[in-house]
Amino acid sequence: MSLITEEIIGVDDIHGLVSRLSKEDRDDINELVSVIMREKDGDQEEYDAAIGAVIEIVTGPKPKLVYSPFVSASNDALDRWKDFISQRIKAERETAGMSQTQLAEASGLKQSHISRLEAGKHSPSHLTLNKIAEAIGIPLTKLDPNSPE
Question: Which of 18, 122, 124, 146 has the fewest CB atoms within 10 Å around its CB?
């Protein structure tokens, strides 16, 4: 469920929310809006992930927006999974000798998104993990052992 479907908000409300964000967060939102516009009639999972990321940046993390195999797990379990995934992405990228920029280019993701994933600020979708694994040249299970092969 998105912020827009939960309630109707005005332009002044949006401006107020966005103006309080850091420059980095505003830049990330600009990049995510580009993804949203590009994927509006395309890749639904990427579209949904971008919407979720914008909402998370504006409103703060909400566990209901996190993709995880731990559907009924506690917040602690979700945080542990996100931490594990972020460490795996960084370790596999470094093992492959890639910079975040190189991984972003190879995967079709934004470098800022890779940075947020590695910092544990976002929980990646299954599609995003697939793109990262393919770009690094590893099986998806090296990033997430719970993923089907």
Answer: 146
